[in-house]
C-alpha cells in the first residue's frame, strides 16, 4: 500500500512517488519494530531505494520527516454534514478507527507516544496540527447536538469526545487491533456514549 503525502510544504515541485516511497519505508520499519530514535535518514533512504540526497533535500531533520509521516497516515479530516449528530460523529470516529486498525499507522502512533520525551517538538506539533483540529471538529458536532436537544446541556462536550475516542486509543496502545471493525466499533461506541448523554424522556 502506497501512502500519499498531503501537500503541506511549498518550494520546488517534488516527485510524489519518491515522497511516498520514503514515507512507506518509515512506516514499514516502525511496524517491524524499529524505533524513531534508532532510524537514521541514511537507513530510511536505503529502505526506500532512493539516494540520501533525495531524503535530505526534502527533510533536514527526522522531526520534519516524521511529521509528514504522521500527516500521511491521518487522512484528511472528514467533513460532517451537520444534518445528523450520530451520523457526523460516526464519520469522524470511523476515520480514527481506521487509523487504529491499520497496523503501520497504529505502530507509528505508539512509537510517537513511547518516544515523546525524545521528540517533544514533534509530539507537540502533532497535537497542534493534527489532533486538535479533529478534536475541535468533534466538539462542534457535539455542540450542535446540544442545540438540537439530542444531548443534555449539562454534559461537557470535551468529556463526551474523550469518552468517544478513549476505547479506540486504548486498543491502539495495547496493540489489540487485529479484530477491529472500524465502522461497527465506531457506531457501538457512539450509541453507548450518546444514549447516556441523551435527555431524559418526557
Automatic annotation (TrEMBL):
Pfam families membership: TetR_C_11 (PF16859), TetR_N (PF00440)
UniProt keyword list: DNA-binding, Transcription, Transcription regulation
Domain of life where this protein originates: Bacteria
Claim: Transcription regulation is one of the keywords in the record: yes
UniProt xrefs under InterPro entries: Homeodomain-like_sf, HTH-type_TetR-like_transc_reg, HTH_TetR, Tet_transcr_reg_TetR-rel_C_sf, TetR_C
Signal peptide residues on this chain, from the entry's feature table: none
DNA-binding region(s) in UniProt: 40-59
Gene3D superfamilies: Homeodomain-like, Tetracycline Repressor, domain 2
Residue span(s) of domain HTH tetR-type: 16-77
GO MF terms held by the record: DNA-binding transcription factor activity; transcription cis-regulatory region binding
PANTHER family reported for this sequence: HTH-TYPE TRANSCRIPTIONAL REGULATOR RUTR, TETR-FAMILY TRANSCRIPTIONAL REGULATOR
The name this protein goes by in its record: HTH tetR-type domain-containing protein
